[in-house]
Amino acid sequence: MAVVLLGITGALFFGIFKIVRSGQSAPKLKNVPGRMAKALLDVGLQIPIFRARPILSIFHAFIFFGFSYYFLVNLTDLLEGFIPGFALIYGGTGFAPAGLVDGFNLIADVLSVLTLTGMAAFLVRRFLANDKRLQFNPGVLLHPKVVEGGVRLDSAIVGAFILTHVGSRFLGQAFRLAREGQPDPFMPFASLVSGLFSGFSEPGLNAGIHATWWLTIGLILLFFPYFARSKHIHLMVAPLNLGLAKQAPRGELDSPLTPSPSGRGETPGARTLLDLSWPRLLDGYACIMCNRCHDVCPAHTQGRVLSPSALEINKRYVLNDEFFALAGGSAPKHTLLEHIISPEAVWACTTCYACVRVCPVGNEPMADIIDIRRRMVFDGEGIDSGVQNALESLAKNANWFGKSKRQRSKWAKNLEFEIKDATQEPVQYLWFVGDTASFDERVMPLTQKVARVMTQAGVDFGAAD
User: Fold this and answer.
1) What is the pLDDT of residue 65?
2) Which of 151, 139, 133 has its CA nearest to residue 294?
3) 3-class SS of residue 109
4) Which residues have CB under 8 Å from 43's CB, separation 6+?
5) Beta partners for 277?
C-alpha cells in the first residue's frame, strides 16, 4: 500500500511542480530560507487565518493543530504496529521517558477531541447551516464541476476522512484502555470513552484495536493520491505560497510580456493559464475555498458577477482537468475567459487590493485580473463599453473625460497664485493632478485646496499637462 499509493502521490506532486514551473517568470526572490521560516511560523501559529472570522478561525485552528500533530501520532502508531512490545499507554514500555510519553499522550488525546469538534462544526456550517458566505452571486462564472456540487463533495470527502481517521485512532486508544481494564490519567477523553466498552470480550476488543489501526493508517495512505487533487492540498502549498510571495512592490506587474501565439515578439497580459506567472498558478493549489476574499470584495458585495474566490477555484479545477496534458508540456485547451472568469467580472474589479490583504494563504487574484485585462485591451476582445469609450478618449484627447486638452489647467485659473509649469522650469516635486481632479467639477474645489495647502507649506511643486 505504501509503495504504490505514495508512488502515485509523488508522481502527482511532480506533475504539479512541472505545471507551476511552466508559468511565466516572476520578480526574483531574495532571502527565501528566511521568508520560508517566517511563513512556517505564521502558519504554525495560525496568524493569517485570524485576519477575519475569529470564531470560525478558532475551529480551523483546532483542526490545523490536531491534524499537524497527527503526523507524529501516526508515526508512533506505525511503530506500535510493527515493533513488538512498543506501546505508549500508561507511560510507555521503556522506549522513552515516561514523562515524555505521558505529555505526548495528553496532547494527542486533547487534540483528537478538538479536531473532531472543529471538523464537525465546519461540516454543520456547510451542509446544515448553509452559510451565505459560502455562496456565490447569480451570474458568477463557475466551473461546471463546481456548479454540479464539486466543492461540497470535496468538503464532504475531506471532512469524512478527517472524522474517520482521527476518530478511529481515538477509538483505538479507548479499546486499548478497555482491554487493560483501567484508565490512563494522561488520556482523559479516551479513558472516559473506554468505559463504554468495559463489557466487551478480549477478542472483541482486540478486533476493535486492529480494525481502528488499519482504518487510521490505511485511510491516510488511501487519501494521499486524492490529497494532491483536493482542496486539502492547501495544507502543504499554503506555507510555500506565503514563503514565495512577491517581494517587489504590489503594483509591479508579475509578467509584463508573454510570447505571442505567432511566435513573433511578445504580447502583454494573459490569455491562458500558462500566460500567468508561476506564483499565480501556485495560488490555485493554495486556495482553501474559504471565500474570505469575496466577503470583502466591493463588487461582489454589490451583487456583481465578480468573485475572487471563484477565480481561484476555477483555476484549480481546470488545472486538474488538464493535469496530464499540462504536465506533459501541452498548451492549455481553453482561455482564461472561457472557464476561469467572465469579461464582465474582469471589468467589475476595482483593484482595491482587499482580496489580497485578507487571503490567509497569500493568493493574489487581483494580479490575475490585471493581466487578463491587459490582454483583453491588447486583443480588443470583451472590453466593457465604458472602458472602450475611455480608452478611445485617452487616445484622442489624452484624458478619459472626452474634454479638450486645453481645459486641463482650467481648475487653476481662479487661484490667487500661479502653479509652476514643470515642463518649463525646475521643481522639486512633480504633482500629477490626474483626469478626475482636473476635469470633474465636483472634485475641482478639492484640487484647489490641495494646491493651497502645498503652497502655504512652502512645497516647491509644479504640474504638467
Assistant:
1) 94
2) 133
3) helix
4) 238, 239, 242
5) 24
CA distances from residue 422 to 236, 410, 426, 430 in whole angstroms, order as listed = 53, 16, 6, 7
More confident: 399 or 211: 211
Q: What DSSP assignment string belongs to 1-63?
A: -HHHHHHHHHHHHHHHHHHHHTSBP-PPP--HHHHHHHHHHHHHTTTGGGGS-HHHHHHHHHH
Q: Which residues contact 195 (CB under 8 A, 6 or more apart)?
A: 178
pLDDT tens-digit map of 237-272? 999 999 998 887 766 776 656 665 555 567 888 999
Given the C-alpha cell 508515526, which residue does it identify?
75
One-character DSSP codes across 217-237: HHHHHHHHHHHTTSGGGHHHH
Q: Cell numbers for 185, please give them.
A: 490519567
Cα–Cα distance measured from residue 201 to residue 209, given in angstroms and rounded to the nearest whole number: 12
Residue burial 229-257, b: 16+ Cβ < 10 Å; e: rest: bbbbbbbebbbbbbbbbbeeeeeebbbee
User: Mind listing the pLDDT tens digit for each residue in 74-86?
Assistant: 999 999 988 888 8
333 Cα distance to chain centroid = 24
CA distance 281 to 19: 8
Can you name the residues that pair with 431 across neighbouring β-strands? 463
Q: What type of residue is 442?
A: R
CA separation for the pair 234, 241 (Å, rounded): 9
Q: SS3 for 247?
A: coil
- CA dist., res. 77 & res. 218, Å (int): 12
pTM for the model stands at 0.82
DSSP 115-154: HHHHHHHHHHHHHTS--GGG---TT----HHHHTTHHHHH
Instruction: Find how far residue 273's CA is from the centre of its chain.
Output: 17
Whole-number Å distance between alpha carbons of 142 and 302: 18
- Largest alpha-carbon pair distance within the chain? 99
Return contacts of 353-359, CB within 8 angstroms, 24+ apart: 353/250, 354/293, 354/296, 354/297, 354/298, 355/293, 355/294, 355/296, 355/297, 355/308, 356/250, 357/51, 357/296, 358/51, 358/52, 358/292, 358/293, 358/295, 358/296, 359/48, 359/292, 359/293
Residue 266 · residue 379 · CB < 8 Å: no
Cell readout for 229 is 487533487
Give me 350's grid cell: 476595482
What mean pLDDT comes out for the span 317-334?
92
Q: Are 233 and 227 in contact (CB under 8 A)?
A: yes
First-to-last alpha carbon distance for the chain, in angstroms, is: 71
10 Å CB burial of residue 345 (0-12, 13-18, 19+) is buried
HSE-up (13 A, CA, CB side) for residue 413: 8
